[in-house]
Q: What sequence folds into this?
């Protein structure tokens, strides 16, 4: 979720200026522009296991500091 790999400039769709689209082509975005900082503010993942365990992971930006939390649930499996 922190992958900053960008597409080749020739691969961007050119809906916006190519220089901007190039920076927006990564999974994780953190750029400075004239309006200020722009980029990824939140990342989340959900996993569900066959034994009924469900985990929700969240990473979020709070006043320029990344915070993380994981919430785990256990569901009873009925047959």
A:
């Amino acid at each position: 979720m922190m992958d900053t790999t960008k597409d080749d400039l020739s691969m961007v769709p050119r809906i916006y200026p190519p220089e901007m689209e190039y920076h927006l082509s990564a999974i994780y975005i953190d750029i400075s522009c004239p309006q200020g900082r722009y980029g990824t503010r939140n990342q989340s993942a959900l996993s569900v296991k066959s034994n009924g365990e469900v985990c929700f992971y969240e990473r979020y930006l709070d006043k320029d500091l990344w915070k993380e939390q994981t919430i785990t649930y256990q569901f009873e499996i009925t047959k």
Observations:
- Residues 18-24 form the longest helix (7 residues).
